[in-house]
Amino acid sequence: MQAKDLKRGMWVEYPQGIAEVIEIDPDHDTALIENLKDHKRIHIQCSELIDEPQLHGNCRDYY
Asked: Domain containing 19: what range?
């Protein structure tokens, strides 16, 4: 993904699991994410994040 595709609060997949986007840095194409299991926060390149529509909480449709 790219920084322009991310929104705060969005859930995404990354190599270690599922995380919530906390902050986005479009200048460096990075994001601060929080792992949903252990709540650790890390900075990661946006290219390592994968959008997964089934993770979005306010959508009632199943893809």
From this structure: 3-48
Dihedral over Cα of 52, 21, 40, 26: its sign? positive
pTM of the model: 0.82
- Report if residue 38 sits inside a domain: yes
Structural domains in the chain (count): 1
Output the six-digit token pair for 24.
């986005």
What is the per-residue pLDDT across 22-45, written as a single tens digit (0 to 9) for each?
999 999 999 999 999 999 999 999
